[in-house]
Design brief:
The complex is a heterodimer. By secondary structure, chain A is an all-alpha fold. Chain A folds into two domains: about 35 residues; about 210 residues, MetI-like fold. In chain A, helix 3 packs across helix 10 and helix 10 packs across helix 14. By secondary structure, chain B is mostly helical. Chain B has a single domain, classed as MetI-like fold. Chain B is built from 14 helices and two strands; from the N terminus they run αββααααααααααααα. Chain B is flat and about 70 Å long. Classes of the chains: A mainly alpha, B mainly alpha. The interface between A and B is large, with 90 and 91 residues.
């Protein structure tokens, strides 16, 4: 009896600690949401106001018309869409080759690929910039899209980890039926890997959506900006209108949160696949 | 063609997209960066060989180069803090409780906010006039202290970023959580039969078991700190008084604002060497400890 009460006390204590911490983590986001709905005159008040006297929904349309939101959304979606397609196409064959094919040099190139994961992007940034400038691609979407078609070491590694979990018998049976590696990859491995492919698509989408440095470097013309860079210009121009700023930040954040809530499993699976291996 | 040779050919064909990308976007740029780091290159005129001049002038520059290095080393304090906080949260989330999925989502959510929006958010939250920090400030004033102007005071600006980053610890936490869930349950059962206490389980089973992941996260954290860019670029642009001029920001300024590509490339190569050194050092130091403790069980 005493043991049971002790257990209850511990469960309640754990909930209390977790709940308070979760509230602490949520406070800034709640503050962002609250600010985004405040009328101008309630922005700077003596006391903290959580619930504005009048819910200013009009801040949202106002924020979205204060900068070319729809244009930037279109640009971002265009870049992110091509990035997802390119990443999927270019990560699948290498991941399969590293997981399921036996060939001379496989281990060597696999270690080379893993070591590139540690490389800070600043080390390669400038020659890549000069290369794209030489090609005349600056101020186009190409520098942001084309590299996605050349594989991503992290995602190749993640897919490889997933391919290793597929039953070898299936692949052996396909070999006996006379399939080549290429047909096995597209007819057998890909249909079995839908969850892992969803994870790859998700990660590459989120990265493309949030990327700041590359669009900052490559896009000069204000009509070509992505949401991340556009948001920064918004700050420069409407620096004191915090309610509009927060509304804009909410709108740029919301799709990501939504995607995460819908696809939470895919996220966690991807992290578990790669994180565990250290 | 022999079967072996045929297989190898197919292997190379399959990895071709990545291999070409590696050559174009990694291998060649590393060497090109090295070459340009020995040149005076201001983009508009062709690069001119100057030997070690770029390195010399950087290393003799206490106001910017060394300042950015010291600032970066200062916020390196985030690395141990995120290990402790990340594992702590992961341990809490690993308890068998109802509603863990909700807690996990709530802790992870901040790390989903794009860096630009995070910078906005914290500029506002830490706004001394009407941020969430203002109750803290009014309390400080009441007891006779100066209010904290997080991002406008050189003494506190770095701490503003540290708070900002620890808030977005979700990504790190999830990796520790995955590691915790990978610890075999029978180890705990055996120890519980021997009458071990909770903290003993953590000290002697959990931490040794996840030590490879901790090591990996420390390496990633140290390297990541040198790449710290977006938040400073938006929130402070390196100010006030260069107190948040971090390494990657100064590198960016050299390349794209002062158009001193040679200097930027020299900084990039110094960063490359630091990365190699940090990885090797942490790996060397921890090798013994990581394996020693795992072998100890």
């Amino acid at each position: 009896m005493q043991g049971k009460r002790w257990l209850w006390a511990r469960i309640c204590a754990a909930h209390l600690v977790l709940g308070l911490l979760a509230l602490l983590f949520m406070l800034p986001i709640l503050w962002m949401a609250s600010t985004s709905l405040k009328p101008d005159q309630e922005l700077f008040t003596e006391r903290i106001v959580w619930i504005p006297s009048h819910i200013a929904w009009e801040n949202y349309p106002k924020a979205l018309s204060a900068f070319p939101f729809w244009l930037y959304l279109r640009n971002t979606l265009l870049i992110a869409g091509f990035t997802v397609v390119g990443t999927l196409l270019s990560c699948l064959p290498p991941a399969y080759a590293f997981a399921r094919m036996r060939w001379r040099g496989r281990n060597f190139w696999f270690w080379v690929m893993l070591s590139t994961l540690m490389l800070p992007p600043q080390v390669t940034l400038l020659p890549i910039f000069l290369l794209f400038r030489w090609l005349g691609w600056v101020d186009t979407f190409l520098p942001l899209i084309v590299p996605a078609f050349f594989g991503n070491a992290f995602l190749i590694f993640m897919l490889r980890q997933f391919f290793l979990t597929l039953p070898q018998e299936l692949i052996d049976a396909a070999y006996l039926d006379g399939c080549t590696d290429w047909t096995i990859l597209w007819r057998i491995v890909v249909p079995l890997s839908k969850p892992a492919l969803a994870t790859v698509a998700l990660f590459s989408f989120v990265w493309a959506w949030t990327d700041f440095m590359s669009p900052l470097i490559y896009l000069n013309d204000a009509s070509k900006f992505t949401l991340a860079v556009g948001l920064q210009y918004f700050l420069g121009r409407h620096g004191e209108q915090w309610n509009l700023l927060m509304a804009a930040a909410m709108v740029v954040t919301a799709p990501l949160v939504l995607v995460f809530l819908i696809a939470q499993r895919a996220f966690i699976r991807g992290i578990a696949l790669t994180g565990l291996k250290g | 063609m022999s079967r072996e040779a045929q297989r190898t050919l197919w292997g190379y064909l399959f990895v071709f997209p990545w291999l070409l990308g590696f050559m174009l976007f990694t291998f060649y740029p590393i060497l090109a960066t090295l070459y340009l780091s020995f040149c005076d290159y201001r983009v508009l005129s062709p690069p001119r060989w100057v030997g070690l001049d770029n390195y010399r002038s950087l290393l003799a520059d206490p106001d910017y180069f060394w300042r950015s290095m010291v600032n970066t080393l200062f916020i390196m304090i985030e690395v141990p803090l995120s290990v402790v906080l990340g594992i702590g949260l992961a341990l809490l989330l690993n308890l068998r409780l109802r509603g863990q999925a909700l807690y996990r989502t709530l802790f992870y959510l901040p790390s989903m906010v794009p860096a630009v929006a995070t910078a906005f958010l914290w500029l506002w939250v830490l706004n001394p006039q009407n941020g969430l920090a203002s109750p803290l400030n009014s309390a400080l004033v009441r007891i006779g202290l100066e209010p904290i102007n997080w991002f406008t005071d050189p003494a506190t600006a770095k701490w503003g970023f540290i708070v900002m980053d620890l808030w977005a610890i979700g990504g790190v936490m999830i990796i520790y959580l995955a590691a915790l869930q990978g610890v075999p349950a029978h180890l705990y059962e055996a120890a519980l039969l021997d009458g071990a206490k909770a903290w003993q389980l953590i000290r002697h089973i959990t931490l040794p078991q996840i030590s490879p992941v901790i090591l990996y996260m420390v390496i990633i954290g140290v390297i990541g700190t040198f790449q710290y860019f977006t938040q400073t670029f938006i929130a402070t642009q390196g100010g006030p008084e260069n107190s948040t001029l971090f390494y990657a920001l100064y590198l960016f300024q050299n390349a794209f604002q002062f158009f001193r590509m040679g200097h930027a490339c020299a900084m990039a190569w110094i960063l490359f060497l630091i990365t190699l050194l940090a990885t090797w050092l942490i790996w060397r130091v921890s090798l013994r400890r990581v394996f020693y403790e795992t072998a100890d069980i």
